[in-house]
Write the C-alpha cells for this entry.
Amino acid sequence: MAEFSEALFSIFFIETLLNGLLLGGILALLSLGLNLIFGVIDVVWICYAEIIMVGMYLIFWLNTDLGLHIIPSMFLGILFTGFVGWLTHKLVISKLINAAPINQLIATGGLLFFFQGAAMIVFGIEFRNMGISLGSLALSEDIYLSWTRLLSFAISGIIVIILYVFLSKSYLGAAIRAISQDREIMTLMGVDTKKLYLMTSAIGGGLAGLAGCLLVLQYDVHPFIGLSFGPITFIICVMGGLGNMVGGFLAAFIFSELITIGGYFAEIEWGYVLAFVFFIAMMFLKPEGLFTRKS
Amino acid sequence: MNNNYIIGLLTLILLSLPFIGVTGYPLHIVITILIWSFAYTGWSIMGRFGLVSLGHGAFMAMGGYITALLWNYYGLTPWIGIPIALILTAFLAIIVGYPCFKFRIIGHYFALVTLALSEVVRQVIIATRDYTGGSLGYTPEPHGEGGWSIYALQFPDDRTAFLFIAVFIWIIGILIWKYIDNSMSRYALEAISEDEDASAAVGVKVTREKLKITVISALITAFAGALYCQYQMFISPDTIGGVGISLQIVFAVVVGGIYSALGPTVGAIITLLLAEILRISIGTARVCVTDDFCLNASGFPLFIYGIMLIVFIIFLPKGIVGSLMDFFKNNSSKKIKTEN
C-alpha cells in the first residue's frame, strides 16, 4: 500500500497526468470529424482512421520524396483528405442513404480494406518516419512534455472553437445543426440535403487530414496504423454521445487519462484494456452517451 | 429441400477428395475454407437478424488461445481444453450480450460495443505477452515426439484426418443454421429486428432470444478458433482476432449471402480462393512503373476485397447465393427479408 501511494504522488505520476491531457488533445481532434459526420449524416465511417492514414502518407510523400516544405505538404494533405471525404460520400454513402445503417457501416468497412490495400500497394508495409522532432519542453528537472503533443493540444483546442463558431454563426452551420435535429423536415424547408451532406463529408475528411498532420509528426506511418487509432476514436464518439461534439471532446480526455494512467501502473496495453472495459461498462450505465442531455 | 441434396453431395465429394488424389496444398486450401466457413456460418446465425457484431474476432481468439494455453501450461488435452474455452467464451458473450440487449443497444451502437470487445481481447493478448507471445503469435507445443496424436488433437503432415474433422464441423454448422432457420426463434428474431417494442408487446422475450442466438454464434466461432489453432499450430492476435478478423468475417458473409445456409460457405470459398489466387499469381513482387515508383503486389488482395465489399453492399446486399436464389425463384412465396 505504501508503494502504491508513493507511486501515486511521485513526480512521474504528474508527468503521466499531463501527458494524458496532451494525448487527449490528439484524441479529441481525431474524433471531431467523425462526430461531425455522424451528427449530420447519421452514418459511422469505420474507415475514418484510414482516411487519417491517407493524409499521413500524402504528407510524408510530399515532404520526404518530393522535398516539399512541411507546411504546404500539410495543407495539400488536408485538401486531399477533404476530397477523399467528399468522394466517400459521393461514391459510397449516397448510394446507400436509404439502406439499413448497418449496411452503410459495412460499406465503409470495405473502404477500410481499400485504403489499407492502396497504401500497401504504393508504399509497402515498411514503417515510414518523417524524422522530424520538435523536441520537448522541460517543465522542471523531471517533467518533460513533447512539443508536438503540446502543439496538437493547442490546435485541437483552436479547431473546436472554430468549429463551434462556424456551427453557431454561419448559415451553413445553422443548416447543419438543423439537419441533425430533424432530417425529414429540412428537405421540406427547401434545404438541399445532398449538397449539405457532401459539404459535411468534405469538412470531416479535411479534419481527418488535420489529425494526420499532427500524427505524422509523432508516429511512424504504416498501412495498418488506422487499426490502432480507429477503435479508440469510435468509442470516444459513442461515449460523448454520437454527434455531440462537446461531449466527444470531454470523453477524449477521460479516455486519454485512463490509457496513460493504466500505462503508468502496468503496460500501455492494459491502459487500453482499462479504457475499453470502461467504455463497455459505461455503455450499459448510460447507453446514450456520457454527456447527452435528456430531451 | 434440394438444398439438402446439394449439401449431401458436397459432403461426399469433400470426403472423397484425399482418395482421388487431392493432397498437399489443394487439400490445405479445402480444410482452411471449411474451418473459416464454420466460423462465418456462426457469425451469420446472428448477423442475419440485424445483430451485426464486430466482436467475433474476440470469440475466435478466445477459442484458440485458451485451448492452446491450457495445453501448453497444464498439459490439458484439447478434448477438455476446447469445452473449457467454449464455456468461458459463452460466459463472455453473456457478460457483454445481456446488458447490451437489456438496455436496447442496437444497430451501430451494438456494432461499436462489440468492436470494443474485439479490441479488449486483442490488447489483453498483447499485454500478457509473457504468456501468450503477444503480437508475435503462439504455438501449441507438439505432443511427445511431435507425431500424430488423437489425445493432443494434432495431426501434423496428415491432412486427411483434419479434413474429416473439418467436414464434420462444417456440416454441424450448417445443421445448426438450418435448425434455427426452422425454429420459432427465427420468427421471434425477425420480428425483433423489425421492431423490438412491438415484438415485446406481443410476448416475444426479446432479451432471452437475442442472448440465446448470440451465445450459439459465439460458441461456433470460438470452436472454429480452437480448430484453426489445432490445424495451423500457430495463432497470433492478428490472424484469429482483432478488428481485422471481425471485419473479414462480416465481409465474407456479406459477399456469400447472409440470408442463406450456404451463403457463408460460398463467401469463404470466394474470398479465400481470391486471396490465394492473387497471392500466387501476383505474389509479393514489386512492380516498378518507373525507376523510383514501385507498386507492391502484396496489397492487391485487400484492395480488391475492399472494392468488392462496397460493390456487393450497394448492388447485391443479399450476397451471391441470396441473389441467385431470388433469380431462380422470382415468384417464390418464401419471403426473404431484405434490409432496404
